[in-house]
Write a structure and sequence with these properties.
The chain contains 13 helices and 17 strands. The chain is of the alpha/beta class and about 425 residues long. Bound molecules: L-homoserine (HSE).
Amino acid sequence: MKNINIGLIGFGTIGAGVAKILLESRQGISDRMGAELNLNKIADLDITTDRGIKLPDGILTTDIDQVIGNPEIDIVIELIGGYEPARTFVERALKNKQSVVTANKALLAKHGNELFATARENGVDLYYEASVAGGIPIIKTMREALVGNQINSVCGILNGTCNYILTKMGDEGANFDEVLKTAQELGYAEADPTFDVEGIDTAHKLAILTSLAFATAIDYKKIHVEGICNIKPVDFAFAREFGYKIKLLAIAKNEGGYIEARVHPTMIPKEHMLAKIDDVFNAVFINADALGPSLYYGQGAGMMATASAVVADLVDIARNLNCNNLRRIPDLSFQDSKIMPGNYRPISEISSQYYLRFSALDKTSVLSRIAGILGDNGISIASVIQQGGGQGDSATVAVVMQTHKAQEKNLRAALNKIDQLEIIASPTTVIRMESDL
Ligand code: HSE
């Protein structure tokens, strides 16, 4: 039976999960593959900390050259994370004709186009299933299972840490910092959790999905990003009152050749399937012309779920190697010559319904002044709730409005004026409401 040799760089949480699967499920994998996947080397700066895995002798090394460029290693798994030295190592491996599996969405969002070009030039594969939505096989689905479809939109909950935090804040009234700490302890969060809570990690993943959906080069900078740090417990209470849940959504749509790609906290009707995705779970909701709507659901972060996706990539590449058929599937699903820059619609040009929470002084005519400015800017109000009041002129009250569909640039123009009024105590909270995803 053919032997395919694997080198792993980065022996953290996910690396330990991959080693565990490769060692413990060796037989099951070879029964499916008809070849042996051997974990030959693991390179990390720290080879003394006990990861709870019993490794065969001689596997661990601090010498990267025992993996990258080692002619005995067929496939390199990059699980270092971050931009450098991950980019340098992946590039070196590809140039040494080693195929690579990575879980590194930040790397692909920033350098994916160059790295895919390097893989092509060297006739090797660069696979990245674990980079988006953890264990959910969404890359394989979009690259292979949906090839007969034109994709109209992809929406998802792509960050386990944020979904965990929003779920606990919404259901239990939990405090943001405490829940974030638990998510870090559970191994969900990035090394720098601001990537999670500021929406950056979700945007990295959406950049990849947008390319797979619409045949565009990966362009992270075109994605509008807002995180979850400004959402307050009171917003969850109002959302409930309106029949909505708050999720950090990644949204990519192609409307008449214009691509909208955005990440922000979103209110979605509580009956929508994405509203039911809680805790660390992720989901991707795709609207495609032949299949119609479909939902992909599973654990979006964590040791074994992510390791499952890494091993799936390894087996795919090993099967390609076994048939002398590397580069069987184009990196971003479409032939390279069909990948275009993409015509992105700026956020100011999008339309949405909005939830607006004004923090206003409890004075007469507050409502009419806010409503007047919104009306002057073409924004129509669907409902109004006022909370508190009656405690004197200097007390603040929460005035919450739900708008009908409006243009973002009109809303921003109105809020610029409203937030300068002397009756407004602090900047207005805005959450987009999406009812027709
Ligand atoms: N920090 C990421 C998350 C890990 O919470 O989803 C998986 O990409």
